[in-house]
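Most newcomers find our protein records easier to grasp once they have seen one. There is nothing in a record beyond a sequence line and a structure line. Getting from the letters to the tokens is the skill we practise here. An example says more than a description, so a record of this kind follows:
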Amino acid sequence: MVRFVREKSKLFFINGTILTITALMMKFVTLVFNIYISNKIGSEAIGVFSLVMAVYLFFITVATSGLSIAVTCIVSEKFAKGNLTAGIKAIRTCIFFSILLGGLAGILIILFSDFITKTCLHNMVSSKPLFYIAIGLPFIAMSSCINAYFTSIRKAYKNAISQVFEFVIKIIATIILLKINISNGVEYICISLILADVISEVCSFSLIFILYLIDVKNKKLCYVRSFGQRINIVKIAFPVAITSYIRSGLSTVKQLIIPTQLEKSGLSCTNALSKYGVINGMVMPVLTFPTVLINSFSMLLVPEFSTYLAQKNYKSINFIANKIFKLTCAFSVCICSIFIFFSNELGLVIYQNLESGHYFKLLAPLIFFMYIDNIIDNILKGLNKQVGVMVCNVIDLSVTTIIIYFLLPILGIDGYIISIFISELLNFSISLFQMIKYTKLKPNFIDWVLFPMICSISSYLFLAIFHFNFIDLTFNLICNIVLFVGVYTFLFFMLNRFSKCKCQL
């Protein structure tokens, strides 16, 4: 049994490493490119585009409707039991459903385009970006199912190939379209960014679908033409879809009312969109960027825990969960410390202003809760507790939407910051309670929290005495961050080694 768990863990980390390296490369270049665009087009345009993306994400939710979760759970279970035919029938059925739902979502966004542009987007853009979104929705829905299939069968490298291809196409298309339209105003900037995304999604689907057909052929399952597992798919996807609609709908409403409520505090429409753009479009993407280092492993937890659940291997569930939390907490505290200790320098280097640095420091404590919550959610999904995850998100969004509606007109941007803190802490608390309830995992606060905090404070004190003082601000910042991470990692390793030796004694 121990050998089996070790082999599974090795395969898990190999797939996770492949996805992580790929995602890290893409996210880094994307972040650099987005920073360049943000500095070029300004925070107001970023704010408008963030509103368009809020609408986009809601209709993506309608198009996918929990089908990727159904694929992950059913295919993982069927392949674990050796029933490959049932697994292939399930993915075929989900692809068919995704075509229907993607088309339905596209029709809905076209039908409500006038309402969306007037009420939700403050007439800052026309309905043209929404028409382009409608074209891409069926392809996004189908891609999500096939990506879930490859994740389930532990062939992460095929998702990585598709992601790299999509990324390259998106960057090329964005550069070309922005070069043509960047001087034509906010609307054409949004059209360029949306169209580039749609083009890349269509190309990505074409590649991932070809890889899927090849995989099925290599398994000698080409003869499987019928659909199946419809009842199981509906049982998993339907409750997830309903709660997803509610969650995504609330999330969209929450994002759309922020500029409106900020205006009620005395800000002009332009300033409200600008403040919203700074936090949502500039600061938050940088704060969440490091999650790329854990997101790939986090996604792999869904099929991993789903397989352990099917095998009723509860010891492995607790063993893997404990290891994951220990490493994720250490990583989260390290990243949180970097944004607190180097906030002003990061603001100047990335966006050439201290305002973003102020928000980096202010929002940095949330990093710990956001990163851990991501891990918890995927563990719960793997344990077939998707509905619980969605209900948690719905409660969180309902509470924070109410807070935003009433607090922002009084406190302005400070009210928005408070709402973000309440949202993340509430979501984290509910998720943690559910995970402890279902896994019986006992949190080890010494290993998970105390040791990383000691390492962080000690590393900061070390840098207060020994630090670089180069003239170039960017180079100086990079060197000091690398030194901080190096000292932190060394101290964390030594503390854990000392703890193990003490336990053995």
Remarks:
- Residues 153 and 350 are 39 Å apart (CA to CA).
- The longest helix spans residues 2-41.
- The chain has 19 helices and no strands.
- The mean pLDDT is 82.
